[in-house]
Design goal:
The longest helix is centred in the middle third of the chain and has 11 residues. By secondary structure, the chain is an alpha/beta fold. It folds into two domains: about 130 residues, 3-Layer(aba) Sandwich (Cytidine Deaminase, domain 2); about 180 residues, Dihydrofolate Reductase, subunit A, CATH 3.40.430. Bound molecules: ligand AOF and zinc ion (ZN). Zinc ion binds next to loops.
Length: about 325
């Protein structure tokens, strides 16, 4: 399953609105003989890709998949049928498929005499490669990660507004890698006026990475003439997070990053539409600068938004914190 998760990770950001699923086929002796991951929409699912590589070696073998194999004719034929035809005798999966159209694969496989076991590394998969899609499948809304870089005292700029560069080069490079695996990046029109961002995913040399998320600008005012995002971004003339998310869901965008600034972040918090926080905290003090969120709807301590930290790691000299709101 660790290898299947690695396959999943490989295609993250290329499969929406479908989930990035990974699959490994073992032959009858337990050797890994086929690896596969979901192809872009309309293309083969992970199981079919892995079975193709395994060929005749799949006979009497085992399939390990991050999601329960689908049982339906969608844009592609059912994976349960492909597994059965290839002579697979055992299936291990991490998570059941929450999509009612595709679910029920485990039962179909068992009825065909194949042994099925679910729940393998379920937490790793549900917090990892399938997190955003699971949220989308359950709520119909894209999964929102709010990302920001701040000083140790929670400021995103100095008193005079200067903000380049709070976080380290290591952290900034890491953010570019993260961007390439996402469907969209959202910023407010205020950030466009102030910072004129390009919102592209670039490598260490500043070259664009092969996959680019859709830049999205939120706000009612026009973008300034000549702004880098003027002709590339989807401009949504609203301030309501739910309008934004509905527009993105309609375009099949599942995994989105909210990047700035503090006014827009506040609107998403007040609407309860932040699903995860990714904070880069630099070991610096800025004192009087603006805070990362402006008005999160908290007026007294009992209203504080409480989060659970999932992960803390160093990113160069900075701290990277991943946290999710408590429900
Ligand atoms: C799998 N393996 O690799 C993926 C699955 O429209 P379709 O035919 O592409 O089906 C999409 C649905 O299939 C999707 O909503 C999800 O329930 C499941 N995705 N299933 O067996 C895969 N990506
Ligand atoms: Zn399938």
């Amino acid at each position: 399953m660790v290898l299947a998760i690695a396959q999943s990770e490989r295609v993250r950001g290329t499969t929406s609105p479908n989930p990035p699923v990974g699959c490994v086929i073992l032959d009858a002796d337990g050797n890994a003989v086929g690896f596969g991951a979901t192809q872009p929409v309309g293309g083969p699912h992970a199981e079919v890709m892995a079975l193709r590589e395994a060929g005749a070696k799949a006979q009497g073998g085992t399939a390990v998949v991050t999601l329960e194999p689908c049982s339906h004719f969608g844009r592609t034929p059912p994976c349960t049928e492909a597994l059965r035809e290839a002579g697979i005798e055992h299936v291990f999966h991490a998570l059941s498929d929450p999509n009612p159209r595709a679910a029920g694969g485990a039962k179909v496989l068992e009825d065909a005499g194949i042994t099925v076991e679910g729940g393998l590394l379920a937490t790793e998969v549900s917090r990892g490669p399938l997190r955003a899609w699971l949220h989308y499948a359950r709520t119909g809304r894209p999964h929102v990660t709010w990302k920001y870089a701040a000083s140790l005292d929670g400021r995103i700029a100095a008193q005079d507004g200067t903000s380049q560069w709070i976080s380290s080069e290591t952290s900034r490079e890491e953010v570019h890698g993260t961007r390439a695996k996402l469907d969209a990046i959202i910023v407010g029109s205020g950030t466009v006026r102030k910072d004129d961002p390009a919102l592209t995913a670039r490598d260490a040399d500043g070259m664009p990475l092969p996959r680019q998320p859709l830049p999205v600008v939120v706000g009612t005012s026009d973008l300034p003439e000549g702004a880098k995002l003027q002709h590339t971004a989807l401009h949504l003339r609203t301030h309501d997070p739910d309008d934004v998310l509905a527009a993105l869901a309609e375009r099949g965008l599942v995994d989105v990053l909210l990047e700035g600034g503090p006014t827009l972040a506040g609107a998403f918090w007040r609407a309860g539409r932040v699903d995860r926080v990714l904070a880069y905290i630099a070991p610096a003090l800025l004192g009087n600068g603006p805070a990362a969120v402006l008005d999160a709807g908290v007026s007294t301590i009992t209203d504080a938004v409480r989060l659970t930290v999932e992960d803390v790691t160093m990113s160069g000299p900075d701290l990277r914190i991943s946290a999710v709101p408590q429900t």
